[in-house]
Specification:
Elements: E1 39-48, E2 51-61, E3 66-70, H1 77-85, E4 92-97, E5 100-101, E6 111-114, H2 126-130, H3 132-136, H4 141-154, H5 170-182, E7 188-192, H6 200-217, E8 220-225, H7 228-234, E9 237-242, E10 247-253, H8 265-279
Parallel strand pairs: 3-8, 3-9, 6-7, 7-8
Antiparallel strand pairs: 1-2, 1-4, 4-5, 9-10
Helix pairs in contact: 4-5, 7-8
Bound molecules: adenosine-5'-triphosphate (ATP) and magnesium ion.
Magnesium ion binds at residues 77-78, 116, 192.
Length: 280
């Protein structure tokens, strides 16, 4: 079981949870109080040309915490994740990684990014795709192969190590991409709709696997989803975004112990309450 800690720093968000919100009751987050957040975004704005995409976005992700970005299509979730990963720059506002301004943060190898599209290289086998991040870290070949195989086993694709990406189904491709992001054992994992192409049963398995790995490494996870139930099952806190321009509407804690199953009554109830908010 995960430790249950009430994080005193948790109020350091621009948009505090709405008082009386069913999701913000006294809850646990696994972030460790007293240490800098793994990710902190303050008053961030972003335009693409004339299009205002993100307005005054502020939130933090504590170390070892799992935070979901939940919002409608086009509200700027991928853009926000690209900014946190350093691939895209904001117009203004602050981004800190492990307590340092992102511009001074050097250890980007510790940050894994699972993109919305799988980005598998068609000329590499599945195993070679998974091993890609390790090449950049100059990990010796034999170790690369061993770790890539272990990651493929974790996502149930060991039998497809030598296959080419075009020989995989959509769900298998996204599991291969998940293996590629896990193989580097990131301290911070950014994931953009990682499970959206999976059938419900595989998705549940992947949720359990992800939580197991996260607890083992105490990794920090910031992930994007459209799926309210997925956010409730996985996240310690949920950043609810509203569209045009993308803004933080609310940051809600998920007041449920783990493990959480989609079939649990409490999970179903929290999902229902959050769906009501999303549709408001
Ligand atoms: N490189 C770009 N140049 C111009 N406009 C862009 C660019 N990237 C995204 N946009 C626009 O920014 C807005 C937000 O896009 P983004 O991909 O961040 O949304 P999203 O919330 O991830 O959507 P979805 O849930 O459909 O993936 C959209 O209107 C999109 O058209
Ligand atoms: Mg997106």
């Amino acid at each position: 079981m995960n430790a249950v800690l009430l994080n005193a720093n948790d109020t350091a968000t621009a948009s505090a949870p709405t008082a009386g919100s069913p999701l913000d009751a006294s809850v646990s987050t696994r972030a460790e109080a007293g240490r800098a957040d793994a990710v902190r975004v303050r008053h961030l704005n972003k335009h693409f040309g004339d299009l205002e995409v993100l307005r005054d976005i502020s939130f933090g992700v504590g170390r070892g915490e799992i935070v979901a970005l939940l919002g409608a299509s086009g509200c700027g979730k991928s853009t926000l994740l690209n900014i946190v990963s350093g691939l895209e720059s904001a117009d203004n506002g602050d981004l800190e990684i492990n307590g340092q301004p992102a511009a001074r943060f050097r250890d980007w190898r510790k940050l894994g990014y699972l993109f919305q599209e799988d980005r598998l290289l068609p000329w590499r086998t599945v195993r070679e795709n998974v091993a890609l991040g390790l090449e950049a870290q100059n990990v010796p070949r034999a170790e690369r192969q061993r770790r890539a195989m272990a990651a493929l086993e974790m996502v149930g694709l060991a039998g497809f190590a030598q296959a080419w990406p075009h020989q995989l189904s959509g769900g298998m491709r996204s599991r291969a991409a998940l293996a590629r992001s896990l193989v580097i054992e990131p301290d911070i994992l950014l994931m953009d709709e990682p499970f959206s192409k999976l059938d419900p049963q595989t998705r549940t398995q992947m949720h359990e696997e992800l939580l197991r790995i996260q607890a083992m490494k105490n990794a920090t996870i910031l992930f994007v989803t459209h799926d309210v139930e997925e956010a409730v099952v996985l996240a310690d806190r949920i950043v609810l975004l509203e569209p045009r321009p993308g803004r933080v509407r609310e940051i809600a804690k998920v007041p449920l112990a783990r493990p959480r199953l989609a079939t649990d009554r409490d999970v179903a109830e929290q999902t229902r309450l959050l769906r009501l908010k999303v549709s408001q």
